Amino acid sequence: MSHTEVVTRIAPSPTGYMHIGTARTALFNWLFARKHGGTFLLRVEDTDRARSTPEATEAIYRGMTWLGLDWDGDTVSQFARADRHAEVAHQMLADGAAYKCFSTQDEIAAFREAARAEGRSTLFRSPWRDADPATHPDAPFAIRVKAPQEGATVIKDKVQGDVTIQNSELDDMICLRSDGTPTYMLAVVVDDHDMGITHVIRGDDHLANAARQMSVYNAMGWDVPVWAHIPLIHGPDGKKLSKRHGALGVEEYQAMGYPAAAMRNYLARLGWSHGDDEFFTDAQARDWFDLDGIGRSPARFDLKKLENLSGQHMAVADDAALVAEIEAYLAASGQQELSDHQRNGLESAMYCLKGGAKSFGQLVDKARFVLKSRPMEPDEKSAKALDDVSRGILQQLTPHLQNASWNRDLLEEVVAQVAEQNGTKMGKLAQPLRAVLAGRTVSPSVFDMMMVLGREETLLRIQDVTGT
Description:
CATH topology of the largest domain: Rossmann fold
Shape: elongated
Strand content: 5-15%
CATH architecture of the largest domain: 3-Layer(aba) Sandwich
CATH superfamily of the largest domain: HUPs
Radius of gyration: 31 Å
Low-confidence stretches: none
Structural class: mainly alpha
CATH class of the largest domain: Alpha Beta
Strand order of the largest sheet: 1-2-3
Largest sheet: 3 strands, parallel
Distance between the termini: 75 Å
Number of helices: 19
């Protein structure tokens, strides 16, 4: 593919959030462009003025940025290019590849109703296609492209294979409405051509559109891009993904505490595969990604798989990068931001926090011992471990901890000795220690917590409970 540069695009409509399906399509386009050293562009299809607000466009930027899908150059606004779209429609008209259609919407609706009643095809064939210009009324007209009427159109698709559509099923698509505004179907083609798009990778709900859009490419003598129509995402029940299956917006997954790397890995595996590989890095995804690996059947969204990948990505992530991403998660989910002291504590504890956690929420929960300050109020469950006997043993432990070298192995020995002197096992002493240091029954190992907190803070927390 070296002779022509690969140029891909994502073209979302600003609807107030970035849909998970759009994110997956964006990822495929980004991976394909990055693999081939090509260009990945962003176009906002903001022709629907009611829905296209600056806030909705911002939501797309935020979703793309969180996912780490950097695009090249400036964002293209479809609405801003309306004059160019109209110019192409008039050019096709001048070339005889399109015609003026004076049929009104009422006439077309009446035709369809009659056709339905008679069981005929409702495909509208404009009576104006071959009309003599001398018979044209002085009235508003739409511009329709002349679609081929004989033979078949073959969509050569990298995912679906060759898809043949009989030209008798194609209507003469309206390119410019009678009020002079371009249709979405024309705008997409003109934008893709002007932006130099070589590969159109999009949802297979656009497959039928490809045949209609090819009429415009052919009328203008433009190169048709490589098509790759990817199956939609379904819920676990095999029905099209919808609100009842859970969150649909990408940003909701950030607020739910999934790392961006896990989300990229997971979305890449939705409908694309590389052997049996489930867990992979960004670099591997870029190396491996190809259109041949995309399956034809819909992918099923599975939160359990996302959680598993999430845990694996957190376990191998760089500590400082994880802290930064956790701060973004706290902001996205409306939680309190970290102080410098908490941030430093979190980073120093990261080695004993990131194993076993499947989301940032779980990790922050485990980090409670280092994020909360004294006095640690033990919750109901962990307070049960703090009876008079265990308080007495903690009192005995205190002077040993004051004098011990502060390293993990020696601390384990000291605690084991004090437990033995009291005729109990180390595990039995670990629960009251955990209650004192973390205030709950689930936390990292007590020795990890002691190492992270340091001698002074550990002793102060014990003292808060034993009162000595």
